[in-house]
Amino acid sequence: MFALHRFRCAAAALAVALLLVACGGGGAGGLVSEGGIGGSGVSMGPVTGYGSVFVNGVEYTTDGKTRIVVPGGTYDGSDERAVLRIGMVVRVEGRVNADGTTGTADRIVYDSALRGPAAGIDVGASQFELLGQAVYVSPTTRFEGSNGARLVTGLTTLQDGDHVEVSGFRGTGGDFHATRVAVDGGWAVGGSVEVEDVIASVSANRLVLQSGLVVDLSAVAPDFVPAVGQWVEVKGNYDGTALVATELSIEDDVMAGEDGAHAEVEGIITAVNSNRLVVNGVTVRITADTDTGGVHFVPGQRVEAEGELRDGILVAEEIEMHTESELEFAGEVLSIDSTAGTVRLFNQDIAVGAATVIENKATFLQDVRAGDFLEVHAGRNGNGLLATEIEFEDGGEQSIGGPVDAIDGALLEIGGVTVDMTQLPGVLAGLSAGDEIELNGAWDPGLRRFVATAVDSD
Fold it and tell me: What is the value of pTM for the model shown?
């Protein structure tokens, strides 16, 4: 019964990642090519599938003429799976067909954003640290790799000292939001590292980054003058006290590409200044012709901006909120806590934040009332739930959808809600934890559980 089914699409794509994309080394931002606009252009985003390569909803054909550039070498595109992994943020240069869903890749470039030892793992807050820099993960973050016999499949199996490589978005405070975390054994003091961060202070042959990391510049001669506020990429070796740099480069806000080329960027807004946004390191200009959908943009929101390049700036034709949600609820509001900024559906208090998209209403907490019927898309936020999109409806059938967290007899748990499957024994028999399902039914306040009556096949 949901008008939107993004969690299914995200699962099929293996992560249209929420929160995509600071590719490091190849500029910044996540470019998308979609929507029936053909021609040459550039696309940056995570690899979401193969056959040949799927990036931001476009299937790019690769062949022996395609160049795939990764740290350590350049390869042809005859076997992209041997080089590219799901969740890697890449820059695709090529052509998109008029259908907007297929194209041909001439060149694909990948470089990690962060690399070094994991530390400070906090499962409840969905984050860990890399040399003092916060790295946030979401339900669609792709984990892979191992340290010895220990496979790493998420934060619960990640350990301090693991050598990690991260692709993800720049955040608002010098943090990162990961689309992929790969583990390759353990990290030793003196080992190589790579970071991207904002310069907090500068002195002779020395930088201090916003994370507090000290960078020794005595072995490098940068081709720019380091200054406070610059976002830089640093590669080198960490001796336990300072990062001894072997490479230092500035990450500017200009998107490489020819004037007039079609481009899209997806990422987190880190700055808003009049008619310009900085989205994952890329400057986006809003004009009178830009379709913004009436959204008021603020730092921290995740957006997709589509348009064309002019002097390295993306002049937007359209800007849309991008939501990443794995859970869907449809039901009546039981209560509202305007102080905490939450609304209760079933037994869950769902937080409403600045980045939550509200459909059909100008505001939310001022307009919502107990008994209103809502369709809510939400994601996990630490130990709670955060709404990514809310739509007011006149009524309808209650439903719940998302991955199955646990199964106990005839009961499931989905997003913290207990679901009674007594009326659907055949469906229950075929389910395992981790499977995604959407169910119609009704909330039973006495039993404090959702009683499922049918599988939603819409």
Answer: 0.66
